[in-house]
Design brief:
about 100 residues, mainly alpha, about 55% helix, about 0% strand, rod-shaped
Length: about 100
């Protein structure tokens, strides 16, 4: 049952629409203290800003680390090739020993 904000008496049926379930008059606010409502609103905005900043930061860090992870995997593959070339006894040209 809905009650009026001014006198806390139940609202009559004329306050509601004809069968569509919508309220035609102004309903009372959920939070009666204006300062508390403003504080909750500003806290919500600050929280939203922080979530956006953290998401953006996470995106950029993942791009940076994704690139460095690719370099790391490239180095690991190169080390594997060097080690495997010694184990398999592959004939290499003499100038390749400068790099290995």
């Amino acid at each position: 049952m809905f009650k009026s904000a001014s006198n806390l008496k139940p609202l009559d049926k004329s306050a509601f629409g004809e069968g569509d379930g919508s309220v035609k008059k102004i309903s009372p606010p959920m939070i009666s203290d204006e300062k508390q409502a403003e504080d909750i609103g500003s806290t919500t905005e600050t929280g939203g800003t922080m979530v956006n900043a953290m998401s953006s930061g996470n995106f950029f860090v993942s791009i940076i680390l994704g690139g460095s992870m690719a370099q790391l995997w490239g180095m690991i593959r190169a080390l594997q090739m060097i080690i495997l070339s010694v184990l398999v006894q592959i004939q290499l040209p003499s100038h390749t020993f400068i790099f290995f």
